[in-house]
Design brief:
- It is a single chain.
- The protein is mainly α.
- It has two domains: 1-109, Farnesyl Diphosphate Synthase (Orthogonal Bundle), CATH 1.10.600; 123-298, Farnesyl Diphosphate Synthase.
- The chain is built from 16 helices and two strands.
- The protein has helices at 2-14, 19-27, 34-43, 47-71, 82-85, 88-106, 111-134, 142-168, 172-196, 199-202, 209-212, 217-225, 228-237, 244-256, 259-280, 284-295; strands spanning 75-76, 79-80.
- The chain has a two-stranded antiparallel ribbon with strand order 1-2.
- Helix 4 (47-71) runs parallel beside helix 7 (111-134) and helix 12 crosses helix 15.
- The radius of gyration is 19 Å and the shape is globular.
- The two termini are 29 Å apart.
- The chain binds farnesyl diphosphate and magnesium ion.
């Protein structure tokens, strides 16, 4: 059924009647289609669900095109990013096209679903703005970081699950919570993988978050665990191109203070809650999606 979503997105794009745009879309690498898997498991594969999944994937793709411009990223999903291969202007406009076509289509699916998704995109944008601000200066504000994480990543996952519940006539609140926990844990694991995995596995440069200015949870916890001189050293590495020795210093300090385990157990708590919730509703497949997410880290 994921194929039906791919075909629907292609149909939406080809309806625009611009060969260049069709070619640009085809050149973009697909992700794991996690949001599609989620909504199909919650709501089945009616045409409305396929259409909703397609619009959500288009919005997600648009947000990543813009994010790569904002982050000045070179690589996305193992490929040269569009902002580099075709330039920022093309990447921004391609994002705008995907985003606005998705909203055009969303309007004819269900106004309730459209409301939920558009609210998530407002959150997404607020989250990205907060991310930019938080990346300028070293900070150790866990609450602000988690709020940003919710807005930037979890809000669209939450809205996807809620939209699925609306379309399937299920309990909105329960699925919303499941999506939120999944989204938060997903980003927390992403933050961990940036530290533990190599560039080849990640499809983007490793240990890059801190260089970009992103003080993710493991860095906040590491700072809290370090002695004063080491804290100063850590702060001096923020937003800096790391040498091999500096990268090694960060990794060893994370290891010494068992930071990855601490961050991982925080993500696991959210996943366990999501699993419990879905098991109580008899949603075995959805609890398995949550299990697979936490296993992705190791
Ligand atoms: C990736 O974060 C970014 C997001 C999940 C959201 C980006 C949102 C916007 C740019 C708002 C605009 C929205 C639309 C629909 C046009 P990251 O940089 O931490 O992750 P990465 O390592 O995958 O780049
Ligand atoms: Mg980015």
């Amino acid at each position: 059924m994921i194929n039906a979503v791919e075909r629907k997105i292609e149909q939406y794009i080809s309806e625009l009647g611009e060969g260049d745009v069709t070619a640009l879309y085809k050149s973009l690498p697909h992700g794991k289609r996690l949001r599609t898997k989620l909504i199909l498991k919650i709501a089945g594969s009616s045409l409305k669900v396929i259409k909703t999944a397609s619009t959500i994937e288009m919005i997600h793709a648009a947000s990543l095109l813009h994010d790569d411009v904002i982050d000045d990223a070179d690589v996305r999903r193992g490929k040269v990013s569009l902002n580099v291969s075709k330039g920022n202007k093309t990447a921004i406009m391609m994002g705008d096209i995907l985003y606005s076509k998705a909203f055009y289509e969303l309007n004819s699916i269900s106004s309730e679903v459209a409301k939920v998704i558009s609210n998530a995109v407002v959150q997404l944008s607020l989250g990205e703005l907060a991310d930019v601000k938080l990346s300028l200066k070293f900070h150790t504000n866990r609450d602000l970081y988690l709020k940003m994480l919710y807005q930037k990543t979890a809000s669209l996952m939450e809205a996807t699950a809620e939209a699925g519940a609306i379309l399937a006539g299920k309990n909105r609140k329960a699925y919303q919570k499941y999506g939120r926990n999944l989204g938060l844990a997903f980003q927390m694991i992403d933050d961990i993988l940036d530290i533990t995995e190599d560039s080849k596995t990640l499809g983007k440069p490793a240990l890059h978050d801190f260089e970009e200015g992103k003080v993710t949870l493991p860095y906040i916890y590491l700072y809290d665990s370090l002695a004063i001189e080491d804290r100063e050293f850590l702060v001096s590495l923020h937003r800096k191109r790391l040498s091999a020795d500096e990268a090694l210093w960060i990794k060893s300090a994370m290891k010494k203070h068992t930071i990855i385990e601490k961050a991982y157990s925080e993500a696991k708590l959210l996943i366990d809650e999501a699993i419990e919730l879905m098991e109580s509703l008899g949603e075995k497949d959805l609890s398995n999606i949550a299990k697979a997410m936490i296993e992705r880290a190791f």
